[in-house]
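# nightly structure sweep
# worker-07 picked up a monomer target from the shared queue
# config: single-sequence mode, recycle default, output format = structure tokens
# input follows
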Amino acid sequence: MEKFSIERKDVGRVIGKAGRIKKLIEKELEVKISVTKAGNITLIGQPMQTYLAMNVISALVFGFSVEDALQLKSHDYALEIISVKDFAKSKARQKEIKGRLIGTSGRVKETIQQLGDVGISVHNNKIAILGKVEDVAMARNVVQALLKGAKHARIYKWLEHKSRRFRGKSS
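# output follows
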């Protein structure tokens, strides 16, 4: 059994319309999920299944679709969460570096998602990356470099090179 909490405003993302999402997770991961209106969650099932359910729920809270979140059932997929607070202490600096990651009209984030073949979500002061394990590792390095102040052009060039090289080997 695992217990944890999410914000009250995110409860609907976990339950879904008429309980559809909660039921789907329970069926797909063979767990029993209890969610209170306050955001307290209890998972009952085999340890590995409850661990996977926690990851799926975390992905949902970050705004990923249930279909994308359920990819975490496979050991080939991962969810990486990065705290912006690890890179900036003041709220003003945190806002600034999140802006560097998102970019004008979301273009920076979109470029990283496309070249890295991952999903990225920014929620409060955390950044979530969802995708295949090796793609998440590459995207994590890119995100961390941007948060540390690396120039966008340099990051794009590095990401294109790594993406081409990696995709070339797997074909």
